[in-house]
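A protein record pairs a chain with a discrete description of its three-dimensional fold. The following entry can be read in just this way:
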Amino acid sequence: MTGTVVLDASAALALLIDPGPAGEQVAARLDGATVVAPDLLPYEVTNVLRRHRNAGRLSETEARLALDGLHALSIDLWPHAVLADRVWALGGNLSCYDAAYVALAERLGAVLLTADARIAGAPGVTCPVEVVELDR
């Protein structure tokens, strides 16, 4: 699909470590799209991959392959400074992390791709939000 898509950490993780329908859904949605994210995305994804490795949910090799996969993605990362005011304004309804993805999607008139349905229903969110159904 074409257009600009803001990829959040939950959707990125589905793409990187979920071989089932959720990962496939994210891959299909990003195909042909311009993918953007706040510059916190790599840190969030790395943190979750380390937690999964430390808890034994991923092997060291699986976690490193997922991290390499993240680095191979063509993602335009946006700095905090250009999003900070909107992130602050959304702070009563979302974590600063989630608000950064929303702020970027709003700024660019883009869709936010996430696996976190709470973002779609949060007061004050004005961007379109597509929610990926995670495999349980």
User: Anything to note?
Assistant: DSSP finds seven helices and five strands in the chain. The mean pLDDT is 96.
